[in-house]
Amino acid sequence: MTSESIQSLASLSGTGESEQLNKKRPRAKMAEVINEHIVEIVSDSGEGAQRCGQSLAAIAARSGNGIWTVEIIPAEIQPPHRSIAGASGNRVRMASHKVTNVGDEADLVIAFNEQVLLSRVRAGEIKPGATILIEEMWKRDPDPAIVATYEAVLAEIKDAGYRVYEIPMEVECHKLVPDPRKGKNMFVLGMLCAIYSLDEELAEAQVRLTFAKKDQKIINANLELLAAGRTWAEENLDIHYLIPTPPVEKPQIVTNGNAALALGVVASGMEVCAMYPITPATSASHYLSSIFEKVGCVVHQAEDEISACTFAIGASYAGKCAVTITSGPGLSLKQEAIGLAVMTEIPLVVINVQRGGPSTGLPTKVEQGDLMSAMFGSHGDAPKVVMAVDSIEDCFYSVITARKIAETFNMVVVILSDAALSTAQQPFDRPEFNADWLAPPVNQSAVPVDAHPYDWDERTGIATRFIPGQPNGMHCLTGLAHDRDSHVAYDPKINEEGLLNRSRKLAAFQTTLRLAPVFGDEEGDLLLIGWGSTRGAIEEAVTSLREEGHKVSALHLKYLQPMASGIDDVMRRFGEVMTIENNWNDPVSDPMVTPDNRRYSHLAMLLRSRWLVDVDCWGNARGQPLKPAAIKQAALAKLGKA
Length: 642
Hints:
Elements lengths: L2 H5 L3 E3 L1 H10 L7 E2 L2 E8 L5 H15 L2 E7 L15 E8 L10 E6 L2 H9 L3 E10 L8 H16 L3 E5 L1 H6 L9 H12 L4 H11 L5 H21 L4 E2 L9 E5 H12 L3 E4 L6 H11 L5 E4 L3 H13 L4 E5 L1 H17 L3 E7 L16 H6 L8 E4 L3 H18 L2 E7 H5 L1 E5 L62 H19 L13 E8 L3 H13 L4 E6 L1 E3 L5 H5 L2 E8 L20 H10 L3 E5 L8 H11 L4
Parallel strand pairs: 2-9, 3-6, 6-7, 7-8, 11-12, 11-13, 13-14, 14-16, 15-16, 18-19, 18-21, 21-22
Antiparallel strand pairs: 1-10, 3-5, 4-5, 10-17, 15-20
Helix pairs in contact: 3-7, 3-8, 7-9, 8-9, 10-11, 10-15, 12-13, 18-21
């Protein structure tokens, strides 16, 4: 995603504005009032479906609706046109309440051709009987094979019970622009604004913001397309919905996870970000580069992942903690440098926006596959703090917290986000700046003459860090085993002393943690434990189960290394415990899998080994966010009630 498109998401709304917009929202005749809807806009790559979805979400959020979005991204940069593998677009969940996840199946789909539509149907992403609006130009294509394929897919879709509308997008857009392929997305946006009774002025403002860096002629053309789409839908469609909006009590910001991470870097007081472009993390660095220089800070694009990490370590050594942003393959490459930061006790924040693996894997798809590598990836004993973000808002605040931990304990802190959060949009209360977020000034006072670079505290293992330039603080920094004076030393006792104190810092930090409250009752038949982006889906599933009378609760862990005390006590109060994770675990139904060889999900392995509790696991690594209905079904199966 470009920095321009991310900027277009940072829209704000306040109490008064939201109430006014509620009054101004058009009430179409016979509009059906609904609680929520999931919309998908899918096209070939390059036709603007993603931008259309982003704009729809921003408009709905500015109107006061709860939203959550997920981008539909093909694995290839330039996939073949009109192909099942080439589907590109956006899923937008809009509701009259706060939304915390992608939801289940889509209620309405707009497809620019039948092949991208077929990909979503075959993936099981569309609700039975859903409404489908499809570009009808293909039935007049000069290639008979394309006409035949279009008609065959449409017949299949109709026979399956979907409600299908054929839309003359190409014809209508050609009335306004010479290349309809570059205008359909705004025409479709206008249609959606009409279908969901969204405010016309808000939609126009969003279009102006989206194309703010373009020529005025381009802005005007897109506004005309927007208006044409709205008019066509109002005159030709019999589907009109109204999603009520609750009053907004505080000003809100609407942004995605990567932009929230970038804003968190600014708010934390860190002044250097070193990175190497990698999907799906790059947009965080791009957005940061568009704003960082305005506050006197630097984004450094290094020649590779290793250089990016060592650059950040060098910047941190100079006095202020720095950050490096990457994804799974980049984390693998950074591991030796991360070990250097651990050995030298230089504070460092590493943001890992996880994607499918191993190797190149699934560059544009979600997976929670990096927990173990984040904890244990470096050779030797390299203790580091590992924490996971669970929402767009949490992306912002977690970076601030990570910087404080890193500088307080002179440690590496790894933040685990993922592809689901990276592009998802969600409104949350606009942060009110707090000076305590910022890093303190660099200490340049003289070091006591009798002080040592590694004067480890006997209780916490923390040593006061020497900053280059401090009088009496000169010493030789090394990644080799060293003594308290930072002299290379291979003596067994000295090496063990270093290992002990670096580990002791992790133990000291653990004593500051407090366990999150249980979602639901404190005891029951089944406890679902999760981490990271799965929180919203898990809690929605648990809410549904509890409404049906099942004794199911949830516990979500933010800190994965170390973990807070009390987790074992919570687990032992439930008849069954199961983790919900978006990473691989061996299915027990596989004939080759036995209790002796089954591979468990990452968190399940950690919980089983630490507390010797029989923790089961459920999840998948299909490259898609986990959905509430699937989690609910897995929980019912565990309870023996599926």
